[in-house]
Design a protein that fits this description.
It is built from 2 helices and 12 strands; from the N terminus they run ααββββββββββββ. The chain is an alpha+beta fold.
């Protein structure tokens, strides 16, 4: 008990002495060592706290800028996608307008009555190769009617329903049309056959025919099913078939079957 009392008395005395010493130093304009010690301990902590706060503010400012940059990037991507979509639409319209112009020029050369139609679906699978048009029996379209695109002969109506028809492409198997090769020296007659590929086989050309790569091929008009002088394609490769003593050739079709949008189909028989 006495020790505890003496301890408190000693601490009180030290506090009194420090207070007197502090007042003395302050009156004489001197720095109190205790105050300097406390300041020395507190100031670094204050600086650290300030630096941490400043760093946090800088971090959040950078984060905000990053989010804004990300939003700007996403907006640019969306705008770019919309512009590409609009460009594709304009290209499609330009292609369709060109096809319409070609069809109008071709229509003036066609005999009989023809009606315009739109391509509703295209099937390019090997062995099938058909398109569906939006004209049928109601429009006077019958099975066997020829169909032409702006670039040339497309095919023939295989089946006509009331409001639509299935057209077998020129390249489809079992398709054949009398053809003539427009060579500068001599026009030769043969048959263009579909083989289920993206090219046609030109067959039964006389061996003496002056056939050359690049010669244009058109319908001959034999039999009356197809009008004459419709473009069919261009000769790409030629060879001589010794077994049958004829010339043959691969022909690249004039019609781009993947980009069809409009066509003409013959009405009636």
């Amino acid at each position: 008990m006495k020790r505890r009392r003496w301890t408190w008395l000693t601490l009180a005395a030290l506090g009194l002495i420090l207070g007197v010493y502090h007042n003395h130093r302050v009156r004489h304009g001197e720095v109190n060592p205790l105050t300097a010690l406390i300041r020395g301990l507190i100031l670094p902590l204050q600086r650290s706290a300030y630096s941490a706060t400043e760093g946090a503010e800088q971090f959040f400012a950078t984060l905000t800028q990053a989010h804004q940059a990300l939003r700007d990037h996403e907006n640019l991507l969306l705008e770019n996608a919309l512009l590409k979509q609009e460009l594709e639409r304009l290209k499609a319209l330009e292609t369709e307008n060109e096809s319409l112009r070609n069809l109008l020029n071709l229509r003036a050369q066609l005999p009989n009555e023809w009606v315009g139609c739109r391509i509703m679906s295209t099937y390019l699978q090997p062995g099938q190769q058909t398109v569906i048009i939006d004209r049928g029996v109601r429009d006077g379209v019958l099975a066997g009617a020829p169909v032409v695109a702006g670039d040339g002969l497309l095919g023939v109506v295989e089946r006509a329903d009331k409001n639509a028809s299935i057209v077998r492409m020129l390249t489809a198997p079992r398709m054949a049309v009398s053809a003539k090769v427009l060579n500068a020296q001599k026009i030769s007659i043969g048959v263009c056959e579909g083989r289920g590929e993206n090219r046609l086989l030109l067959n039964f050309i006389p061996p003496e025919a002056p056939l050359q790569v690049g010669d244009r091929v058109a319908t001959a008009g034999l039999g009356g099913k197809y009008p004459p002088n419709l473009p069919i394609g261009v000769v790409e490769q030629i060879w001589y078939d010794r077994q049958y003593s004829v010339k043959k050739a691969w022909v690249r079709p004039a019609v781009d079957f993947e980009r069809l949008s409009v066509a003409l189909v013959k009405r009636g028989k």
